[in-house]
Design goal:
By secondary structure, this protein is an alpha+beta fold. The chain has three domains: 108-132 and 173-252, no CATH class; 133-172, no CATH class; 266-429, 3-Layer(aba) Sandwich (Trna Endonuclease, Chain: A, domain 1). It has helices spanning 22-32, 76-89, 110-126, 150-156, 176-191, 195-205, 218-223, 234-247, 249-252, 265-284, 341-354, 394-399, 407-416, 420-429, and strands at 2-7, 11-13, 40-43, 46-49, 52-58, 61-66, 133-141, 147-148, 164-172, 258-264, 290-293, 298-301, 304-307, 311-315, 318-325, 358-364, 372-378, 386-392. The strands form five sheets. Strands 11-14-15-16-18-17 form a six-stranded mixed β-sheet, sandwiched between helices. Strand 15 (318-325), helix 11 and strand 16 form a beta-alpha-beta unit. Helix 3 (110-126) packs parallel to helix 6. Residues 1-11 have a biased composition (Basic and acidic residues). It comes from Donghicola eburneus. Pfam families: McrBC.
């Protein structure tokens, strides 16, 4: 299978001398209807990729789409490592990935990274043994076991005194849990691109030789229940469901021969920024400020127009700041630094509805726009809210443990505006 690597928002030429051939483009076109809007944007003998990263797979092609970060090294290995680190921050990859020494550089294809991560989770769970369940079984055996089924035994073995028809409970790994897991592994061994990844999956499959082969369906995996004895397996099956919904054709794309695991980069950026702020607020801010993601939800009118800010910062019941993450590039030469009017209007609406005086639009840093505070606008409304423009280093966010530069300065301004009693209490706790 042909394997290609592109960057988000990159243009891909189509034709005999292009990046992909016309038959390969037709395969992507068949998949397009099942993808989120904006992933593939078609032009004349070309297509432009949208702000999504991950994996697209057709019969002819395996395409990985990596982030385009115009700040620092942009090699495929570094960008792959960055994307994996960002995904790991959201919990979509196993916790081992977050602290892995080689995380900053990933040489394998993203599809293999996802598959190997899943296999790693399975191997860890298998250290405590495969899931075994008792089932009721009736069998004609040569020694009594469980309960003798006397009437049936007399009919079955009337002329055979060497066997006994018994009903008994048997503990077996051949159960719906392992059947579903084996089915997912069989799919992954066919999808893996590198021989080493296929070998990893095959080695795990050998542990399930006694398990009946069956077809994997997402709804079957979702229906499995986990008691306290097998609770440690629940994250493994959650990941299996995630992979099934993204990679298995019959689940997401009907009869189309293709699959996808894609991440909306703006949503991913917003999520890891919010999670990092939540973590820092809980560990170093002494509870003075709380961080909420996608909440509180309010309506702009009595009957609708729901508003859901990316990140809100609260001091008690008061909303003291609202942040929105934008996976776009700032242009410092422009009069508004590249901030769109629509984004400014949206933030002004937030300020009014949430009675909040401090707002921020947060962008990725670039070569032309270094990390930190870029500029601020005082919005010309009665409340005169301040809209701050901030650029942050994506690597610092993905690999670091502190508040990114720029956002840190905003937090300091918020803390400076807290009542003196709150600040004094924080100083006593050593958190300011």
């Amino acid at each position: 299978m042909k394997s290609l690597t592109f960057r988000e928002r990159e243009s891909v030429s189509i034709g005999p001398t292009g990046d992909i051939s016309e038959p390969e483009a037709e395969g992507l076109a068949k998949l397009d209807g099942c993808l989120p809007p904006g992933v593939l944007n078609w032009g004349h003998r070309s297509l432009r990729l949208g702000p999504f990263c991950g994996v697209l797979r057709t019969k002819q092609l395996a395409i990985e789409i990596l982030p385009k970060i115009d700040h620092g090294s942009d090699s495929s290995e570094d960008m792959r490592g960055l994307l994996v680190a960002m995904i790991a921050r959201t919990g979509e990859l196993g916790p081992k990935r977050v602290g892995e020494a080689g995380l900053r550089q990933q040489n394998g294809h993203l599809l293999d990274v996802f598959i190997e991560d899943f296999c790693g989770q399975v191997k860890v769970a298998l250290r405590r043994g495969a899931i075994a369940r008792y089932s009721d079984r009736t069998d004609n055996i040569n020694a009594i076991r469980g309960r003798l089924e006397l009437n049936d035994h007399l009919r079955t073995n009337a002329f055979d005194r060497s066997h006994l028809l018994c009903r008994f409970d048997e503990r077996s790994i051949n159960n719906p849990y392992n059947q579903a897991l084996k089915a997912v592994l069989r799919i992954l061994v066919g999808l893996a691109l590198s021989p080493s990844t296929r070998a990893i999956v095959t080695a795990i499959l050998h542990r399930f030789v006694e398990v009946t082969d069956r077809r994997a369906r997402a709804r079957d995996v979702a229906a499995l229940q986990f008691d306290r004895t097998i609770r440690h397996w629940e994250p493994v099956f959650a990941k299996a469901l995630w992979l099934l919904q993204g990679l298995y054709p019959d689940v997401r794309v009907g009869d189309t021969a293709g699959s996808a695991l894609l991440f909306n980069m703006e949503k991913l950026f917003e999520t890891i920024l919010g999670l990092q702020l939540q973590y820092v607020s809980q560990t170093t801010m002494g509870g003075r400020l709380s961080i909420a993601l996608q909440s509180p939800v309010k309506n702009l009118s009595n009957s609708g127009f729901q508003m859901r800010p990316d990140i809100t910062i609260h001091s008690g019941e008061e909303c003291v700041a609202i942040l929105d993450a934008k996976w776009k590039r700032l242009y410092l030469d422009n009069s508004n630094s590249g901030v769109s009017s629509a984004d400014a209007y949206q933030m002004n609406a937030y300020a009014s509805r949430y009675r909040c005086q401090r707002l921020a639009l947060v962008y990725p840093a670039s070569k032309e726009c270094p990390p930190g505070h870029i500029r601020e606008f005082v919005l010309a409304t009665n409340e005169r809210p301040i809209l701050e423009i901030i650029a942050i280093d994506i690597r610092e966010l993905a690999f670091g443990g502190d508040i990114p530069r720029g956002v840190e300065g905003m937090i300091e301004k918020i803390e400076a505006g807290l009542p003196k009693m709150e600040v004094r209490d924080s100083l006593n706790r050593g958190t300011v």
